[in-house]
Amino acid sequence: MTRAQLAVASGLSTGYITKLEQGHADNPSAEVVHRLCEALEISGAQRVHLFALARQVPTPTGSAGVVVDPDATRRSITAEQIEMLERLNPHTCSYVDQYWNVLYANSECRRLYRGLTEAGSTLTWMFLSSEAREVMVDWDFEAATMVAWMRAMYARRPDDAVFRALLEQCAVNPDFVTYWDSQDVVVARKAPHLRLRDLDTGEIHEIIAQLWPSPDPTQPISFYLGIRTGVGAPSL
Q: Which residues contact 44 (CB under 8 A, 6 or more apart)?
């Protein structure tokens, strides 16, 4: 592909592409990198690598208007990844995307977080499901923490249409509006533990909650691990 052809395909100028090739165009934006990926039909690990070379982070939704389909992301989860989650029972584990859509949850997670998979998103479950208030013993604290985390993430992608849709969806809940207006921001949990009420037995479970990015950079998912205290490690 010639420079002129790449310029037409990417919507960039031939002069700018020449500067990129010669190392004279510093700090290309994420949108520029995305356009080059599309024009060159780069995907997967190569796309991640190109963003890394530009010191940018590939985002599922950006100014270029690219939206990742949650169903497509869900289908990218392999049988081995699902087996790992199920083997971690009775600890609560799930895969989520950056919008807190639950892509897969193991059986104990589905049982304890009643109605979570039906809600589709942890955020909408927290604010639009009556079961969330029954399950989350410290609902007020957890809800406020989740909104503060959302504010931090939204600040990185203020033009993200998916985040804006989530805001509008949850804004029907007055508690959500109160927490959002407080302008609190966090980038990690304020406390490592959370408490869940088992709606089948009435027992209170203390969970050590962690969220980890996928080790595969081509998968835009995170791994939620909720370790039940007092429960031995499962046999792997």
A: 218
